[in-house]
Design brief:
By secondary structure, the protein is an alpha/beta fold. It has 2 domains: 150 residues, no CATH class; 271 residues, P-loop containing nucleotide triphosphate hydrolases (Rossmann fold). It has 15 helices and 10 strands. Strands 6-7-8-3-9-10 form a 6-stranded mixed beta sheet, with helices on both faces. A 4-stranded antiparallel beta sheet has the order 2-1-4-5, covered by helices on one side. Helix 1 packs parallel to helix 6, helix 3 packs antiparallel against helix 4 and helix 9 packs parallel to helix 11. The longest helix is centred in the N-terminal third of the chain and has 35 residues. 34% of the residues are buried.
């Protein structure tokens, strides 16, 4: 080994030791800083996770996410650049996004530090100290008792939330039986429980309102019930397990999203015919398909406009078309997300009357709407989901509409919703109270 190579190795080792020392030194500072902000200390030693949690301390969670994603991309590109170091063109090509990512990362970091400075109520000039002398600045802020954040991170992992029902319902031979233990996701270094302890049975012929504030778990509930996003749960429809036999059962479930997913340059007839080809059984005869198409046109009042372009339909006609496309397979369970969005009172009423007819035909209809009080007389039952103290979606009520008024002590669905919404959302913050009250009610009934 030559003297020059030996010197390079010594120099390299010295740089690595210095980098390691600097990282550990700054990590100690982050330990104390995170403690002040209410973040678990272990994150101070993990690259990327540290910056994400610093973003939480700085009330810049989105910037923390962006920082992590950009650093991950930069890491991949730097590896590729090393692999193609001897290929000048490829190396230069990769250098451009590498430089761009580096600049973006610095922007995210500056925004996080500026947010931290704001939370600690310090002057913006501190940004210079953070960028040039980060380890020493972080250590100073962590150790100095004069540096105190104006607010802390709310640690929901240690919040118990409302007590649970904890009992599965017996699967009924008819109707929809839902037993959801929990639905959770990994969300940037932490597991988040979106929904738990949901147990209910909806008989056939019932039209049910799904009520809940933002983040209460309405979409998560629907996705779990339909099998689109499976939960730790058992969902049965007419004694058939939706999860175990999803490929067959999905045709017995209709879901109409809030946004219309139809092509504007097709006619109504073409649109429904295409839906028949996709959703009806491949063994269905041409006559059966034609009869079903004719039935949809008549049932949803589209016969007179069947040769019109979708773009030329009124708002109400377009909504009815969207419903017809899903109902063409004659599903047992029919779920609609804000079908009355953008419709006036009269048109919305007619639409919900059509849904009532579907339920009266022996189907199960579940509807989300932001204006339930104008059509509440058409519903049999209401499901009320609410966020408990741990910000987890819970079941605060399921049962007849008239009994719901008595249970919550309110006279409208809007008032019920306000009672379970958190106080920071303009509500009364009584979610835990009603979740536990409902759990006690269920336990009394099942013994």
């Amino acid at each position: 080994m030559t003297t020059e190579m030996t010197q390079k190795l010594i120099s390299l080792s010295a740089q690595q030791i210095y980098s390691l020392f600097t990282y550990l030194f700054s990590s100690i500072g982050f330990v104390f800083l995170f403690k002040k902000c209410g973040v678990k200390k272990r994150w101070a030693f993990i690259p990327m996770a540290r910056e994400y949690h610093l973003g939480l301390c700085a009330d810049k969670e989105k910037d923390g996410r962006g920082y992590c994603i950009m650093v991950g991309l930069l890491f991949v590109l730097e590896i590729l650049a090393e692999l193609f170091e001897n290929h000048t063109r490829i190396y230069l090509f990769l250098s451009i996004p590498i430089i761009g990512l580096f600049v973006t990362i610095m922007v995210y970091l500056m925004r996080i530090y500026l947010g931290l400075i704001k939370v600690f109520e310090r002057k913006k000039l501190w940004i210079i100290a953070f960028l040039l002398l980060e380890p020493y600045t972080v250590l100073l802020w962590g150790l100095n008792p004069k540096f105190v954040p104006s607010k802390k991170i709310e640690d929901l992992s240690e919040v118990t939330g409302a007590k649970e029902i904890g009992k599965k319902l017996i699967t009924e031979e008819e109707g929809l039986t839902v037993n959801i233990q929990k639905r959770s996701v990994i969300d940037f270094f932490k597991r988040k429980i979106l929904l738990k302890d949901i147990h209910l049975h909806i008989p056939k012929g019932h039209m049910v309102l799904l009520l809940g504030g933002s983040g209460a778990g309405k979409t998560t509930f629907i996705n779990a019930v339909t099998g689109y996003e499976k939960a730790d749960a058992t969902i049965t429809l007419d004694d058939k397990d939706i999860y175990a036999d999803y490929d067959k059962m999905k045709h017995d479930i209709g879901f109409v999203p809030q946004q219309d997913l139809v092509r504007g340059n097709d006619t109504v007839m073409m649109t429904i015919s295409d839906a028949a080809l996709m959703r009806l059984s491949k063994y269905a005869s041409s006559m059966e398909k034609e009869n079903r198409i004719a039935r949809m046109l008549d049932q949803f009042g589209l016969e007179s406009v069947k040769y019109n372009l979708v773009d030329k339909l009124s708002g109400g006609q377009r909504k009815r078309l969207s419903i017809a496309l899903e109902f063409i397979s004659d599903p047992t369970l029919f779920i609609l997300d804000e079908p009355d969005s953008g419709l006036d009172g009269v048109m919305a009423r007619r639409l919900f009357e059509s849904l009532r007819e579907i339920a009266d035909g022996g189907k199960i209809v579940v509807v989300i709407t932001h204006t339930p009080d104008r059509v509440i007389d058409l519903f049999d039952d209401v499901i009320v989901l609410a966020k408990d103290a741990s910000r987890t979606g819970r079941l605060a009520w399921y049962g007849p509409v008239d009994e719901a008024y008595e249970f919550f002590g309110k006279s409208s669905m809007e008032e019920i919703l306000l009672s379970v919404n958190q106080k920071d959302e303009g509500g009364e913050g009584r979610a835990d109270e009603f979740v536990e009250k409902y759990a006690d009610r269920v336990k009394e009934k099942v013994g």
